[in-house]
Each structure stands twice: as structure tokens, then as C-alpha cells.
Amino acid sequence: MDEPDETTIYLVPAGNTSGNLYEEYIYVDNAWEKFGAGTVNVDLSNYVTQSDINGKANSADLAAVATTGSYNDLSNKPTIPDVSGFYTKPNSGIPASDLAADAKNLWNNLTYSSGTFSTDANSFVLGGSNQSPT
Q1: Strand 31-36's sheet: what is its strand order?
Q2: Rounded Cα distance, 34 and 24, in Å
Q3: pTM, whole model, 2 decimals?
Q4: Do residues 134 and 92 make contact, with C-beta atoms less than 8 angstroms apart?
Q5: Which residues of the chain have pLDDT under 70?
Q6: Is residue 48 a contact partner of residue 61, using CB atoms and an 8 Å limit?
Q7: Closest among 114, 134, 113 to 124, alpha carbons compared
Q8: Max Cα separation, the chain?
Q9: Per-residue pLDDT tens digits for 4-30
């Protein structure tokens, strides 16, 4: 080898071991400096193992909805009834014309203890002032 380069890390096989084990050297101040050993002990006890993975569901065995989350992939969906044409509450109360027949009957038979009280299909008069039902 020509002159060692001080910006290079040199890997030398570690002793008489087989496999991917190397010692690491750098050349600094005209001398070799060993800074990495051939073996490193790493604690992998908190990592997932192959047996952990083998106990999990195979995504190929799952229904499509399990991986997409899409309602459209759900099987045996409930039937959602068509609600078009049902009553929708207006922003300012319920008009008397939309009240159910029993509610209209109750409305028309209200009594007031003093003053005047009268009703029509859309409003009532109580004590002389015209009010809309809400």
C-alpha cells in the first residue's frame, strides 16, 4: 500500500473468524489507531422476532375492509333506508302546516284562561298579539 489516507477507515478481517467480522483502523499522526473491534454485542431482546410475526394475521387472509377501512369494501352491509321526503326541520321552528294530525288537533283545542285565543293553519292569536308557533 502507498501512503495511508488519513480520511479513510480501513477494515481488516478480525483474526481467524469467519463471517462478516472486521477490525476498524484509521491512520492518524503517522500511526495506526484501532477504533473498532470485530465483535459487537447488541441486545435485541426488545425487538420483534420471527415467531412474533408468525402469530399475526396474514393480510392476504383478511377481508379487504380490514386493510382499506373503506365502507365500500364491507360485506353484509346494513340496508340504510331512503329518508328523502321525510320532514326536515326549518331554521325557524316548525310551521303549523307541517305538524302531525294529532299535534294539530291538540293545537286547535288549546284553551286560554283570559283574553282571546284563536288559531288557524299557520298561526295563533293570544291576548291580541299574533304569534307563529315554534
Answers
A1: 10-13, 22-28, 31-36
A2: 6
A3: 0.29
A4: yes
A5: 1, 16-19, 38-41, 87-134
A6: no
A7: 134
A8: 118
A9: 888 999 888 877 666 677 888 999 998
